[in-house]
Amino acid sequence: RGKMAARFSGGENRLVSLPLSRIRVIMKSSPEVSSINQDALFLTAKATELFVQYLATYSYKHGRGKEKNALTYSDLSHTAEECETFQFLADILPKKILASKYLKMLEKEKRDGEVGEGDEDEEEDDEAVED
């Protein structure tokens, strides 16, 4: 084991908060990975921890978190949708909508067709949303 591995091998003075065993399982789920170096495991855990911290801090500062003194799911989903850095998370953190609103959207899509056979204004709105 390397020096770094020895420092996080357990005990009260842990340098990472995430469970290393779970991270190892996730890493091993990739077919390209056959073995995982302890230092690589530690660095992946630490990088993940720092990323989650950055996402949470950014979402709190740029969302309604300050008003409520809390970080909400909607703050996270808004960040994923609006901030270019986090847009890759938009599918994982979608905005919540009511089931009734979703059903209305499905009905409208059925009526208009997938391409949008309605008037041109609706098509322009769709393009603006995609950008």
TrEMBL record:
Keywords annotated in UniProt: Acetylation, Coiled coil, DNA-binding, Nucleotidyltransferase, Nucleus, Phosphoprotein, Transferase
A GO biological process held by the record: DNA-templated DNA replication
InterPro entries for this protein: CBFA_NFYB_domain, Histone-fold, Transcr_DNA_Rep_Reg
Gene Ontology cellular-component terms listed: CHRAC
Top-rank taxon: Eukaryota
UniProt biased composition (Acidic residues): 115-131
Gene Ontology MF term list: DNA binding; nucleotidyltransferase activity; protein heterodimerization activity
Localisation: Nucleus
Positions of the UniProt region annotated as Disordered: 109-131
Domain Transcription factor CBF/NF-Y/archaeal histone residue range list: 17-78
Pfam families named in the record: CBFD_NFYB_HMF
Protein task: Forms a complex with DNA polymerase epsilon subunit POLE3 and binds naked DNA, which is then incorporated into chromatin, aided by the nucleosome remodeling activity of ISWI/SNF2H and ACF1. Does not enhance nucleosome sliding activity of the ACF-5 ISWI chromatin remodeling complex.
Record text on subunit structure and interactions: Heterodimer with POLE3; binds to DNA. Component of the CHRAC ISWI chromatin remodeling complex at least composed of SMARCA5/SNF2H, BAZ1A/ACF1, CHRAC1 and POLE3; the complex preferentially binds DNA through the CHRAC1-POLE3 heterodimer and possesses ATP-dependent nucleosome-remodeling activity. Within the complex, the heterodimer with POLE3 interacts with SMARCA5/SNF2H; the interaction is direct and enhances nucleosome sliding activity by the SMARCA5/SNF2H and BAZ1A/ACF1 interaction. Within the complex, the heterodimer with POLE3 interacts with BAZ1A/ACF1; the interactions are direct.
The protein's name: Chromatin accessibility complex protein 1
